[in-house]
Design a protein that fits this description.
The protein is α+β, with helices and mostly antiparallel strands. It has 14 helices and 14 strands. The termini are far apart.
């Protein structure tokens, strides 16, 4: 069975079909089949106009779930979205960016999903819609593990909601074994807002691809408040990344993998891409364990 509704209400009604699978951009849908034949019903939501586009609403931006990465990059948005746009340009090839959707990237819940750290830094929420109604979850609560989310089978992600709670420059830094078409070994997104005295009034930092679920670094964010907004500010506060944020219980990574990946990201933050790629080449990420914040946050030096 193949269903292609024209409206959001029709799509939600179709989700009542047992074992139905949602097809949006298809960039993860078909590769996931491997050599298996498609036997379950398919819900193609590409014709649903309500699931495309970005608009500003009172107090927040609404990114429709079916919005593609290319559409995101082409949309004029405040500077705090620059990290998300930078991540959008790293999502596979141009063809993938033209077809892949933001909601699909989140629902796939890969630990290496490029869109997650910037959206975490933006305090994004996920809007889920079903016949029973609509609910909102913080992105950090929506993704629960490697390929695991809180989305029920009768729900679809209708929108990603970004509150207007921070203004300022943002950066996204991704490390891979090569420059293009690569799965992240480590990545960081940061947003810094300065006050009239040139000091940090708000800080948001999120790391991804270093553990099963990307996450914010609240202790580091707290430590950055009041610091002078200058190059190298992240390195000056790396103690908080090592101690405060790392104090939470998580299974630890293999030490060798930590060293290779973090050495590579530090080199990349210094602008030495050749050393970065060489360092990360042998690193095989298992996405279990806590990020090595000591060097990941060094990338904050690029934020100024």
């Amino acid at each position: 069975m193949f269903l292609r509704p024209r409206s959001l209400s029709e799509a939600v009604d179709a989700l009542a079909t047992p074992r139905i699978q949602i097809l949006a951009g298809g960039t993860d849908f078909y590769p996931a089949l491997r050599d298996r034949q498609l036997s379950d019903p398919v819900l193609d939501i590409t014709a649903v106009k309500e699931l495309s586009g970005i608009r500003q609403e009172p107090g927040e931006f609404r990114i429709a779930g079916g919005t593609t990465w290319t559409e995101l990059v082409a949309t004029p948005l405040p500077r705090c979205f620059d990290a998300l746009k930078a991540a959008a340009r790293e999502v596979g090839s141009i063809q993938i960016q033209n077809r892949g959707t933001i909601a699909g990237n989140l629902c796939n819940a890969s630990p290496a999903a490029d869109g997650v750290p910037p959206l975490l830094a933006l305090d994004a929420e996920i809007e889920l819609m079903s016949r029973a109604g609509t609910r909102r979850l913080k992105l950090g609560d929506f993704i629960t593990g490697n390929r695991k989310t809180e989305r029920r089978p009768d729900e679809l992600v209708s929108a990603i909601l970004v509150p207007r709670t921070i203004e300022g420059p943002s950066v996204f830094l991704k490390l891979g074994a090569r420059r293009y078409l690569v799965i992240s070994i480590a990545m960081v997104a940061a947003i810094l807002e300065r006050d009239d005295q040139g000091r940090i009034a708000q800080a948001r930092v999120a790391v991804g691809s270093c553990s099963a679920v990307a996450r914010r670094l609240p202790e580091l964010e707290k430590a950055l408040l009041g610091a002078a907004m200058k190059r190298g500010v992240g390195g000056e506060h790396q103690r908080h990344a090592q101690q405060g944020d790392a104090a939470r219980p998580h299974k630890r990574h293999h030490v060798g993998e930590h060293d290779e990946a973090t050495e590579a990201l530090e080199a990349l933050a210094r602008g030495n891409k050749r050393i970065a790629r060489k360092a990360c080449a042998p690193a095989q990420r298992r996405w279990t364990g806590e990020p090595d914040r000591r060097r990941l946050v060094y990338a904050l030096s690029l934020a100024d």
